[in-house]
Amino acid sequence: MSLGLENNLENATNRLSLTDCQEEESDIVDPWNVQSRSQTGVDYDKLVERFGSSKIDEELLTRWKKVTGKDVHPLLRRGIFFSHRDMHTILNLKEQGKPFYLYTGRGPSSDAMHLGHLIPFIVSKWLQDTFDVPLVIQLTDDEKFLWKDLKVEQVIKLARENAKDIIACGFDPENTFIFSDFTFIGQCPQFYQNIVRIQKSVTFNQVKGIFGFGDSDVIGKISFPAIQAAPCLSTSFPFIFGDKKIHCLIPCAIDQDPYFRMTRDVAPRLGFSKPALLHSVFFPALQGAQTKMSASDANTAIFLTDTPKQIKNKVNKHAFSGGQATVEEHREKGGDCNVDISYQYLKFFLEDDEKLKQIKQDYTSGAMLTGELKKLLIDTVTPIVQEHQQRRAAVTEETVDKFMTPRPLRFNSK
Question: What is the pTM of this model?
Answer without folding.
Answer: 0.90
